[in-house]
Amino acid sequence: MPQMTLRDIALALELSVSTVSKALRDSYEISEDTKERVITYARANHYLPNRMAKSLKEGKSGSIGVVICSIDNSFVSRMLDGIDGACTQAGYDMIIMQSKESLVQEKSCLKQLEARGVEGILISPSAETVGFEHLLALREAGMPIVLFDRISERFESDQVGIDNYQAAFQATEHLIANKYRRIAMLNIGPDVHFASQRGAGYLDALKRNHLTYGEALVRLCLSSAGETLKDCVRAGIQSLFELAEPPDALFTATDQLSTLSLSVLHEMGRRIPADIALIGFSNTELADVLTPPLSTLHQPALEIGRLAAEKLISLITHKGIPEGYETVRLPARLDIRDSSGPRVRKQVIV
């Protein structure tokens, strides 16, 4: 069935196309009775305005761009749900693009979104994004930008994420309270701001409790050409067990590192937590049914996405340079399960 047009409504109600258009736009030139007739008929017949024509006329696309690292995990999916809810309520569409943790791809995504005429951009920067010159240039050209999830002090903008330092500190303190003393960490690149904040929280918890810390117990995992992220995780964990004094606990700094570490430890025949305890960032809904159930730092993904989208829509609606930028840091929730249970010291039989 062809889509209903303004002309169809005008013919049915014996009105001019101009009158119908003004009625749907709530123009003061049209009487309330006529507006009611037009709106009622349009709704009853599922009339949808021509978004493209409207955008050309008003100079607005009615859409925002969203750049994420990858869509293949539950945490990102939940953030997108939050963004979608806020956009739907405000009457915006969203165009989603993936950087795949590549700065080159991120820049390409931004260029494509700008070419499509989006009114603003939400971005969770890639793991390779150290400098923010490309975002600064885009903002100086008039594009509203809000960072979400991967927030950074290196770029002045409205931002929404979690308190990465406190979350990592809390997880490490939990392991220490359960009598673990050689606590290793899997993280991504040190130049990534959120990763460095998580690393700082981990290290400060060890220092405060006078425990061993340093590069020997930290492994960085980033997928590269010819190597998957799981390969990198496997190599990192294997090298930790080859130390003269292997770790008795492992803290993982991202959602993917957490679930991949659990898988690798199983493949290696390591018992959790008898051989090594495990805790990390993860929003997987399967944490309770994994073997063993996985202790996690759960991030409020839906709320991060919703708040970030609301901030961007506010910037778009209230055009002009904001008086100041706000960074919202939400708390992560520590969910304790079997994988980080109290350490049981092994008995030596003589």
UniProtKB/TrEMBL annotation:
Residues 4-58 form the HTH lacI-type domain. This is Transcriptional regulator, LacI family. It comes from the Bacteria. Signal peptide: none annotated. It comes from Parapedobacter indicus. The keyword Transcription regulation applies. InterPro entries: HTH_LacI (IPR000843), LacI/GalR-like_sensor (IPR046335), Lambda_DNA-bd_dom_sf (IPR010982), Peripla_BP_I (IPR028082). One of its GO terms (molecular function) is DNA-binding transcription factor activity. Keywords: DNA-binding, Transcription, Transcription regulation. SMART domains: HTH_LACI.
